[in-house]
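**Protein of interest**
===
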Amino acid sequence: MGLADVITTLWRNWLKHNPNNPDWQDRDRFVLSNGHSSMLLYAALHLSGYSLSLDDLRNFRQLSSATPGHPERGQTAGVEVTTGPLGQGFANAVGMAIAEKKLAAHYNRPGFPIVDHRTWVILGDGCLMEGISHEAASLASVLQLGKLIAIYDDNGISIDGEVSAWMQDDTPERFRAYGWQVIDSVDGHDPEAFSEAISKAVKEQNKPSLICTRTIIGFGSPNKQGQAAVHGAALGEEEVAATRKALGWEQEPFCIEDSIYAQWDCKEKGSKLEAAWYRLWQDYRREYPKLARNLQRQWSSELPDNFVADYQQCLLDQLEKKPTLATRAASKVCLETAGALLPELIGGAADLTDSCCTRWSGCTTITADSPDGNYLHYGVREFAMSAVANGIAAHGGLRPYTGTFLVFSDYARNAVRMAALMKLPQIFVYTHDSIGLGEDGPTHQPIEQLTHLRSTPELTVWRPCDALETAVAWRSALVDRSGPSALVLSRQKLPSQMHDRDSFEKIARGGYILVRETDELQLILIATGSEVELAVKAHALLAHKGVRVVSLPSVEVFAQQDEQWREQVLPSEVRLRLAIEAAHPDYWYRWVGFEGAVMGIDRFGESAPGQDVAAAFGFTPDRVASRALALLKGHTNTGECNADSFGG
């Protein structure tokens, strides 16, 4: 209710969009970062002509409705991103503005502004209290995102009451300090004043703009406006009646006059805007056919012809010359190949570029003056980096990947969840994947992070054991458009395992037999990442012909395979299984059952050289072999088989 005047002015007079085609490539992007105001967005979508009916509005927050409690991407036409966790929609909008500026710099030509739209975002006090707003706002200013316009709903109220009791920031000065254009003290209930502020914002080419609108929460409610009580609670029948009277609204509920629809309807206007753009696009295709084909392919999220074959052949030739590599280094080799084939790749890291090996030789840095690069230095901003990249992916036309240490995925955890919830094809590159990183100690050594990532729905996690598995992980992540992927990579060098040129497809199934038994199968060693090498060496020490080694680089992908493949790799009748992973053990009991065992770590790490830490936690071929022998002898949980006093 407090933002109704703002949204009316913006949507009816300024927003470039076409309700007949919500996916028009050159539409303005609109993000409601304070997603609890979702009904406001649904009302705007309905009135302006999107396929959202009055019945949909009546079904607000009901099961499987098109009007969920917070806006959800893919569920409601016209909703660009899922919002609700405050501050992230703002960061998504920064990513969208980055994508627009980069694509425009690369594809536009004199007289052909094929990519030319703005990103609008509404945010509230809650968004600004979240630390991610600082991270994202700072980056937006550095990149001079002049087509990003943020509208701050300054109503002074959050759920607990008046925010002045816990937030006394000078928001306009804060954003001026970042380098934004700030238009403050705008009456959000004065359409002319707000429209004048927008006019000033759109004229600014080099700075993102923040319009600070003063509004009254629950505007129109005689007894509750301006109070926290109206933030999330229903007004009640009596107060609704009083509000309707105060506003002079005499129509029955869910009854809207044709004259109001006529004032709001954007279908004709939107169709004309898109038709004019399409004529320009046709001329552009004739003038610049190669550029047009490439841009169309990127918009369509299609890979180039023969991408998979070219990628694999090139990589196999390179990796055969590199028998021992850290998987983070192997990842860089993969990027050298993929980057040359995919101009839509846009990478970045949170101040760990060299450590994460995320920058390949063909990278150029995106700056304010050179937006047509393909690499972003995000600075120490893991949360904003991940959410900004979500916005880049949601915008379309580009394929983002980001990098940081696995343990610092904790900083970005909710943005990873939002990528999965929105099924955005972002690629998270996480390096320094275990206690094997050594001297940096427990603050940098991940223990529980793999369990969390693997437990996140719609997120595919890869933890490769060598260069070839890394190559397959990258290929799978790039081919998969159904959701995000996380590539979990080692700092330490790992030897190549015994593969052949047919291994690509076996690895791509998420789990496969690496070392076969030569007699009746009795025990299966299951491992991922650096621990695959341990399993292979332990297998050799055992000299037992009934032991198999299975590499399981992606449990999610393996679980999606047909039953025949899963049974072939992990036969259900073989109950003796030992999973080996230098991470929290609980996740693996799903795969080893009650008669199996897990060698993992259920406490934090130690600071020492990587090999010493691994030995202290029992991750040596001898200890793996000892644990395997105990299983074969019928002991599943004997004390002598635990990874010393450190491990589990």
Observations:
- Confidence is low (pLDDT under 50) at residues 637-648.
- The longest helix spans residues 267-287.
- Residues 307-495 form a domain with the Rossmann fold fold (CATH 3.40.50.970).
